[in-house]
Structure formats: structure tokens, C-alpha cells
Amino acid sequence: MERKYNFIYEKLVYSEDDLVGLIAYGIYKRHKIEFITSIKEREHRDPNDDECNSFFVASTTESQLKKYRNDAEAVLSDIVMNAAGEELEQYEQEMLKDYQANIKAALPSNTKTIILSVVSSLLFSFILAIFFVLGQTSEKSTNDSVEKMIQKIRYEDRDSTNTCNFKDSIK
Q1: Distance set, CA 75 to CA 79, 112, 122, 143, 155 (Å)
Q2: What does pLDDT average to over the chain?
Q3: pLDDT tens digits, residue range 93-130?
Q4: What is the pLDDT of residue 1?
Q5: What angle do CA 51, 52, 54 make, to 5 degrees?
Q6: Distance CA 89, CA 14 (A)
Q7: How confident is the model at residue 162 (pLDDT cuts 50, 70, 90)?
Q8: Are 164 and 157 in contact (CB under 8 A)?
Q9: Out of 45, 64, 70, 93, which residue is the most buried by the measure of CB atoms under 10 Å away?
Q10: Is 60:8 a contact under the CB 8 Å cutoff?
């Protein structure tokens, strides 16, 4: 009996770089192996020529060829999505590490922060003390000047022939 050959490869793979067709052919081959294994397990024998012929006829219908290619497109799409997802996840991790490193570099360390806080507090206290002393000195100087002026006016009032009182001299 002459063996018939199935040219399903040419029906599924349109060119050498047809990745969808190559995957579809792999799906067809898996389907064929499942068919053969099923008969071996169920019948405890290899499939006969009639069974093989029925499989080949069923697997080469237009709708089945289209199903192999659709399944291949789904597999390829899943592969691309998974690869893109992994790459995106890796990119996100790298961005997060860079972001955290930039934040750490921008913020001073705890020791630096404490030292800067203490130094700035001391400096501020020193400046306030200087202003307080200057204010006290200025106020005392002003008070002394006013006191001397008052005493001078009183002294002049006693010595002068004009009797003028303190209230008139201030005006």
C-alpha cells in the first residue's frame, strides 16, 4: 500500500520567517502526538491507516488550519506580553532603585541633620544675645541721656532768673 504524505507544513507556514506558521505547525504536531498516544492508551496499539487518514483529513480542513494559526497567534501574543511584562517590571525596579538613590543623595544623613540643627540653634541664640545686649546698651544709653537732660534742665531752672518749670521746658 502506498503511503500518502500530508503537506500540512506548506499549508500552515507561508515563508521561512513566518513565526505564527511555525508555531501553528508545532501545535499541529502536538495534536498529532495526542491523537497517536490516545489510540495507543485506549486500544493498546498504533493507529491504523484508516485512523491516520481520518486524522489527516480532519486536521487539514480550512477551519482546522485557521484554528492552528489562531492558536499560534494566541501563544505568540502571550509570549510577547510576558516578555514585555518582565521587561517593564525590570525597568520599573531599576527606576525605583534610581529614584531611591537620588532621594537618599538629596537628603542629608541623620548625623548631618542633627549637627546642622544644633549649630543653627546656637548661631541663632548667639545672634539673639547680641541684639539683646545691644538693645539693653542702647536703652540704658538713651535712659542715661534723658536722665542727664532732665537733670541739666532742672539745674538750669534753679540757676536761671526766669522761673520756668520743667513742663514748659519740655515743650
Answers
A1: 6, 56, 70, 96, 114
A2: 82
A3: 888 888 888 887 776 667 777 787 888 888 888 888 88
A4: 47
A5: 65
A6: 35
A7: low
A8: yes
A9: 64
A10: yes
Name the burial class of residue 21, with classes exposed (0-12), middle (13-18) and buried (19+) by CB atoms within 10 angstroms of its CB: buried
Give yes or no for a contact between 68 and 18, defined as CB atoms under 8 angstroms apart. Answer: no
Q: Say what the pLDDT of residue 73 is.
A: 96
How far is residue 11's CA from residue 31's CA, in Å, rounded to a whole number?
A: 16
Grid coordinates representing 38? 490516545
The conformation of residue 45, written as its DSSP 8-state character, comes to S
Q: Is 92 exposed, middle or buried (0-12, 13-18, 19+ CB in 10 A)?
A: exposed
State the amino acid at position 139 in one-letter form: E
Take residue 65 and report the three cell numbers written for it. Answer: 488550519
- DSSP letter for 15, please: S
Closest CA to 52 of 4, 1, 2: 4
Length of the chain: 171
Q: Which of 58, 68, 70, 55 is nearest to 24 (CA)?
A: 68
Question: By the 8 A CB rule, do 24 and 71 touch?
Answer: yes
Look-up: residue for cell 486500544?
Answer: 43
